[in-house]
Amino acid sequence: MAGEITVPALPCRSIDEIVEFYTMLGFTRTYYQIRPNPYVSLKREDLQLAFFGIQGFEAADSYGTCLVIVPDTRELFESFAAGMRAAHGKLLLAGIPRITRPRKRKNANNHSGFTVVDPGGNWIRISAAKPTLEDRHAITGKLSVTLARAVVMGDSHGEHTRAAQILDAALERDSNTATPAELIEALAYRAELAIRAADTAGAAHAVVRARSITLSEAEHSELTETLAFLDDLLPVVENEE
After folding, report:
1. Which one of 19, 70, 115, 141 is separated from 103 by 20 to 30 angstroms, measured CA to CA?
2. Confidence check: pLDDT of 109 > 70
3. Burial of 55 (0-12, 13-18, 19+ CB in 10 A)
4. Strands (E), the chain
């Protein structure tokens, strides 16, 4: 049998808070009730999510999660990011709610993936249906191999402090043998981890170091999305100067 539809139902503290957040991401409310129990359904094209309210629920204690398989993680991320920038003037990278950038996931066969943590503390894990040509390339550089480990720790498990420790050791050990592209990717992720830890000085240091690296025209083209992300972090740098 084909054509089945699965709609995850996830917990939250406030369905109105959930509606506001997902509307920002381009969802439309399709069902809403307060009694006998708070419940809301939202839809964005073929992506459907439902939420039920629990009095006294703490988002930080949530175990709610679901996996969403999409054809193109970057296209969806850019749409979500545009909604966040329009509403908040920036990407939400720390605390609850937040979003991570699309990256190859070593623990997902190198498929690209990113995560949205919503106001209910639910982890909406978005993964590509198949790896892109870029994702199929083997990771060989020492710094890139360690970056892949750090991404699993920080993005899949939410252990940003441990991920930062892993990456700091690699940046100290392998910077001299890494390519400029590897360094910038590692430093961009290190800045993101610092922001999650409310370490604005550390984030600013990583951004300044990354932006000081000289790139060839080909490398600049290859890193367009990462460099744009570093531009998103410029307010952090400016606040620390």
Report:
1. 19
2. no
3. exposed
4. 9-12, 28-33, 39-44, 47-53, 65-70, 98-99, 103-104, 112-117, 123-128
